[in-house]
Amino acid sequence: MQLSTLLSSILLFVSLVIPVLSMSPATIPKGILNWIYPPLSFDVKVVHQFPAGTWIENLAVRKNGKILVTALSSPQLRQVDNRGRKPVKLIHAFNNATSCTGITQMEKDVFYVITGNFSLSTFRAVPGSWSVYKVDIHHHHPQIIRPRPTRVSLVANFPDSIMLNGITVLSRHKQWLLVSDSGAGVVYRLETQTGMIDKVLDDPLMKPGSSAFGNATNGINGIRTKRGELFFTNHHQNILARIPIDHRGTSKSDAKVVARIDGVDDFVFDRFADAIAVQNGADRLVRVDGDTTVTLAGGPLDETLPTQGQLYGPTAVRFGKVKSIFRISRADWMLAYITTNGGSAQYLDGNITRGGTVSAVDVRGNW
Questions:
Q1: How far apart are CA 276 and CA 272, in angstroms?
Q2: Own/partner pairs, 239-248, CB within 8 angstroms, 24+ separation
Q3: Which end of the chain is more exposed for a tag (fewer CB within 10 A), N or C?
Q4: DSSP for 265-318?
Q5: Which long-range contacts (CB under 8 A, 24 or more apart) does 75-78 make?
Q6: Are 40 and 362 spatial neighbours (Cβ–Cβ below 8 Å)?
Q7: Of the candidates 105, 67, 28, which has an alpha carbon nearest to the alpha carbon of residue 332?
């Protein structure tokens, strides 16, 4: 009788749980999601600490979980182990540039990276020095005995640019990208198969302003497409905004402010279509809730405390991609990975004592 009851309980459990496990994570109710994957115990965890003076600018996450990072302080694309257990690996060093900014993924292990010349001592970009490269790392895998070299090719130079910054996919079918110019306050469409460039967006909400921080970093910044609109941040205007676009990336009407966010840098959409943004000036990770924000992690810095638990100059944020039902310890798609520069103020006063990081925040405690 007891065995029969036990078997019935097991069958009931399986009948309830299996349908949930077969669902896409985005469709699982938040309460059940937290029960299957209980939130981790840390607020901000440093995955990798870079040397002093290393400004990590942006990131993209591979399907295998590894994190590709760009640096404003060097023209290098590097790979960070998402579990923090393996050394950082150099993927490629770009010639004729001092910096890398935006990165986006077009298809599995095919990425597009922005390079150019930027000075951290003057906070000024060199106009016309900016380019977009294709980086194919299909064969860059540790389990391949004799991996092929990373294939890197120039897609296009942007002679009329001031500082290219954000980059996102417009059409995977046509292999088109949108690229933001922080200094000019415009967005270009880049047709990657031909290298053709067209300026498609030019709106007052994208424009930079006069600043002591140089000529490039305070206009339109991060960009993302969603449901026929381009969402973008503007660091100078302290806004997250959106503008309706057509299939070619041109505007259908004027841009509108979504939320005002002091010192906003880059952002990403979570699995529930909420915008998660980083505040470079305020050292915070926030969720946009209507026209206001809710702090998820970070805040006023305490110089007496170690980097662990704090966000010194967050620059970009992306979610992990590893999904594992039966090996929960390896799943990281609920983690927000954040790049930091070590604190922007240290570059302005010349007293550079910290390096950037790749850090992780489990945001489910704030769902």
A1: 11
A2: 239/205, 239/264, 240/264, 240/267, 240/275, 240/277, 240/288, 241/205, 241/206, 243/201, 243/203, 243/205, 245/200, 245/201, 247/171, 248/189, 248/200
A3: N
A4: EEEEE-TTS-EEEEETTTTEEEEEETTEEEEEEE-S--TTS-STT--SSEEEEE
A5: 75/99, 75/100, 75/115, 76/100, 77/103, 77/113, 77/135
A6: yes
A7: 67
Euclidean distance between CA atoms 240 and 288, whole angstroms: 9
Is the Cβ–Cβ distance between 365 and 28 less than 8 Å? no
Q: What share of the chain is helix, strand, coil (3-state, %, to 5)?
A: 15, 45, 45
Cβ-proximal residues to 145 (8 Å cutoff; 6+ apart), any chain: none
Residue length of the chain: 367
The one-digit pLDDT tens for each residue of the chain (367 residues) are: 566 666 666 665 555 555 554 554 555 555 555 544 444 444 789 999 999 999 999 999 999 999 999 999 999 999 999 989 999 999 999 999 999 999 999 999 999 999 999 999 888 999 999 999 999 998 655 555 556 789 999 999 999 999 999 999 999 999 999 999 999 999 999 999 999 999 999 999 999 986 555 555 589 999 999 999 999 999 999 999 999 999 999 999 999 999 999 999 999 998 888 899 999 988 999 999 888 888 888 877 665 555 556 899 999 999 998 876 444 455 677 789 999 999 988 888 888 889 999 999 988 755 4
Tell me whether residue 282 is exposed, middle or buried, using C-beta atoms within 10 angstroms of its C-beta: 0 to 12, 13 to 18, 19 or more: buried
Contact 261, 293 (CB under 8 A): yes
Residue in this structure with the two tokens 């990276």, named with its chain if needed: 113
Distances, alpha carbon 54 to alpha carbons 223, 279, 346, in Å: 24, 19, 11
140: tokens are 């860059």
CA distance 265 to 242: 15
Query: CA-CA distance, 284 to 363, in Å (whole number)?
Result: 13
pTM: 0.86
Residues contacting residue 201 through CB under 8 Å, at least 6 positions apart: 178, 186, 187, 230, 243, 245, 249, 250, 251
* Among 299, 315, 310, 312, residue whose Cα is nearest residue 355: 312
DSSP assigned state of 148? P
Separation between Cα atoms, residue 45 and residue 294, nearest integer Å: 20
Q: Which two tokens stand for residue 25?
A: 């994570």
